[in-house]
Amino acid sequence: MQRYAIGIEFCGTQYRGWQTQQAGVVSVQETIEKVLSKIANEPIIVHAAGRTDAGVHATNMVAHFDTEAIRPERGWMMGANSQLPKDISIQWIKCMDENFHARFKATARRYRYIVYNAPHRPALLHKQVTHIYSELDIDKMIAAASKFEGTHNFESFRAAACQSNQPVRHVKHCRLFQHGRYLVLDIQADGFLHHMVRNIMGCLLEIGQGMYEIEHIDTMFAAQDRKAAGVTAPPDGLYFIQCYYPDQFELPQPPLGPQWLNLPE
Question: In this protein, which residues make up the domain named Pseudouridine synthase I TruA alpha/beta (predicted)?
Answer without folding.
Answer: 9-104, 144-246
